[in-house]
Design a protein that fits this description.
The structure is a single chain. This protein folds into 2 domains: about 130 residues, P-loop containing nucleotide triphosphate hydrolases (Rossmann fold), CATH 3.40.50; about 280 residues, no CATH class. By secondary structure, it is of the alpha/beta class. α9 crosses α14, α9 packs across α16 and α11 crosses α14. α17 links the parallel β11 and β12. It has 18 helices and 14 strands. Strands 9-10-11-12-14-13 form a 6-stranded mixed β-sheet, sandwiched between helices. The protein has a 5-stranded parallel β-sheet with strand order 2-3-4-1-5, covered by helices on one side. It starts with 10 loop residues before the first helix and ends with a helix. It is about 40% helix and about 15% strand.
Length: about 425
Amino acid sequence: MARDLHPRFVADRIEAALGDTPVVAVNGARQVGKSTLVGQIARERPGSTVVTLDDEVQREAASADPRGFVDRDGLLVIDEVQRVPDLLPAIKAAVDRDRRPGRFLLTGSTRLLSTVELADALAGRVELVELWPLSAGELRGNRESFLEALLAWEPSAWRDSTLRPDDYASMICAGGYPEPLTRVGRRRSAWFTNYATTVLERMVTELAHVERLEAMPRLLRLCAARTACELNVMDLTNDAGLPYRTVGTYLAHLEHLFLVQRVPAWSRNLTSKVARHPKLLMVDSGLAADLLGTDAAGLASRAASVGQLTETFVAMEIRKQLAWADFQAELFHFRDRGGTEVDLVLETRGGKVAGIEVKSTTTVRRGDFKGLHLLQERLGDQFLGGVVLHRGTDAAPFGDRLAAVPIDALWNAP
């Protein structure tokens, strides 16, 4: 499965940004295909220059003379720009002298603009684009339109499925990083193990001084065990055996490395008893499954893990689709203190809301819509619709703007 055979649907957004913005920065984890993608874009633009700061010579040259390094004609692509932070002020100065669009295309394996200094250097001059591991649609060459169908409430787009629970288990445990998708069994697990070790040892030391680097792998495994759960830092602190402030700092590092992310709690004063904790997500369900020591065959016997990993997989498919969607929406979760919850809440810039529940079961019951009913009742016309995504085969209506939908509708909606 060659990496460059898979379309990356976010490419259109990058091309559009290069048409009107001086600097475009592609952020994403290592090994998600950033270098391949920006290299393809550069090849289609005559006069482009591509440099990678993983190369020691290029890195030394950039460090020695940042202004001279960025003073080039045509599009300059700088891969892994975070490795020489002094380049960003030089890029700022170059753009201030000449604000032509499409001058710089940057990639970074940490969240650029995560510090005050970086934000000041590029604010107003850059468009940030996130590249996630491959989506299910990208793997099939099928551009997903699930979110458009959900927000426009077009239930005719959702059809019965032929996939079985075992099929979903295989997809969940494979994840979306291009390289492990070419491997199976122990070779895939070896890649995940090496990846986590390499990223933590190399990238965390680039981000900041970490006194207890040996604690990071355990913390990452604890995060995997809590994926798709509300984040309670104190509980995580107790299990990790680390100081509270240290865990908070290390969690921020894991986020900057695109290994985990937080989904904020959603509230519009529906009730005074709404939970405020964010939900923790591993960015890749395959890496999460490997950290938990399970594979597709073993997942069937781990009821708690299959539920969490299924929700993680679905949430990240939604996150990937938001990266290239033609509309803007934010992703949240909702739970009140009485236990009524909605796994994922999408809110558009206009304040319209759609809800998504995720079930690892093959059947859906009326009670599975409890949280969606609450949103519908409280929001009225601002509620666009709600679906329960499940691992069964049937798509079926469950009332006004409510439906049960097989998970594969995420990438099979026409």
